[in-house]
């Protein structure tokens, strides 16, 4: 039990977002996590980004699923016997556009033993929308949505009977820093059995100009997506960011495969956050807040990354231009 001193102010119960902002804006250099991009407006903007001519990852991975979905489904179910249960666990399910192609293939390949789809997302509203569409489009598919952080979801599912096919698509692995990539994969591998499979999407290295353009589109949608993070802090935490005083800046380093994005302050300014008791954060002119990593990979890098996490590469599915790879992994 914590007892306040007689004349001390009561402790403020902070949300996880408020705690993150307090920590991220108090350090040097300042940083905010890309996982907070996805409020309702951010999710809508990302849907627009995926349709942009410059943004190749979504349509490229979708093409892989359309052309090779049956082979991917076979690779994911290779650890199960006839009639054995299979749970398809998708981390960060989103709208399920690509996954529906794979689920149709699995339903066709497993008559009498339909897989159970377990979409995992931290947003209950996103899951509700996905489940509603699946009931219409794939009524024969058992669906068990799970609103949870990824690690907690996998620990909960570890005791589930039968094999699991865990999906982490869209090259979301690239949002982690290199050391965190291996730690994350190792955490995903820890509850897996030899019968389980892990399918991870990797954006491959390519012309640096194409990569940079994908994160700095001519229509400015990606800029609006990045700036929406500040709007969210204004709405949810009572911050007073003036969005016109900030600009989106992306850059790609071909020597490391690091695509990074920042929000840059156009002038010296002070920002206060109401949810933090009006705490003030000072920004110098042209000081930046780092908001996103999106690392790109080579195939040897992927093999080394998997091995470091205790996984082995089972099969690699690429598009014809070698822009993207969906990689099936198993515990080593």
UniProtKB/TrEMBL annotation:
Pfam families associated with the record: Methyltransf_33
Its EC number(s): 2.1.1.44
One BP annotation, GO: methylation
Keyword field contains Nucleus: no
Domain of life: Bacteria
Gene3D superfamilies in the record: Vaccinia Virus protein VP39 (3.40.50.150)
Keywords: Methyltransferase, Transferase
InterPro entries recorded: EgtD (IPR035094), EgtD_Methyltrsf_superfamily (IPR051128), MeTrfase_dom (IPR019257), MeTrfase_EgtD-like (IPR017804), SAM-dependent_MTases_sf (IPR029063)
Leading EC class: transferase
Domain Histidine-specific methyltransferase SAM-dependent: 18-329
Recorded GO MF terms: L-histidine N(alpha)-methyltransferase activity
Name of the molecule in the record: L-histidine N(Alpha)-methyltransferase
Species name: Hymenobacter polaris
Gene (name only): egtD
């Amino acid at each position: 039990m914590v007892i306040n001193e007689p004349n001390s102010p009561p402790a403020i119960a902070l949300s996880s977002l408020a705690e993150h902002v307090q920590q991220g804006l108090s350090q040097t250099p300042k940083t905010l996590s890309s996982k907070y991009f996805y409020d309702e407006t951010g999710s809508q903007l990302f849907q627009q980004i995926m349709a942009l001519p410059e943004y190749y990852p979504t349509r490229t991975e979708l093409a892989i699923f359309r052309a090779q979905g049956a082979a991917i489904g076979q690779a994911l179910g290779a650890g199960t016997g006839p009639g054995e249960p299979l749970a398809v666990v998708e981390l960060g399910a989103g709208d399920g556009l690509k996954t529906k192609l794979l689920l149709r293939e699995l339903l066709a390949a497993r008559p009498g033993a339909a897989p159970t789809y377990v979409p995992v997302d931290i947003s209950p509203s996103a899951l509700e929308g996905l489940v509603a569409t699946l009931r219409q489009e794939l009524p024969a598919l058992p669906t068990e949505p799970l609103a949870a952080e990824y690690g907690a979801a996998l620990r909960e599912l570890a005791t589930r009977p039968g094999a699991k096919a865990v999906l982490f698509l869209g090259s979301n692995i690239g949002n982690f820093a290199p050391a965190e990539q291996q730690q994350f994969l190792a955490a995903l591998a820890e509850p897996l059995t030899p019968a389980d499979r892990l399918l991870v999407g990797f954006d491959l290295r390519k012309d640096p100009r194409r990569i940079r353009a994908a994160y700095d589109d001519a229509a400015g949608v990606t800029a609006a997506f990045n700036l929406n993070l500040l709007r969210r802090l204004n709405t949810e935490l009572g911050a007073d960011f003036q969005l016109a005083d900030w600009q989106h800046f992306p850059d790609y380093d071909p020597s490391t495969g690091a695509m990074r994005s920042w929000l840059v302050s156009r002038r010296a300014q002070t920002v206060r956050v109401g949810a933090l008791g009006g705490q003030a954060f000072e920004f110098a002119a042209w000081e930046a807040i780092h908001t996103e990593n999106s690392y790109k990979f080579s195939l040897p890098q992927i093999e080394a990354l998997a091995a470091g996490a205790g996984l082995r590469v089972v099969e690699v599915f690429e598009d014809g231009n070698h822009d993207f790879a969906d990689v099936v992994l198993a515990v080593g």
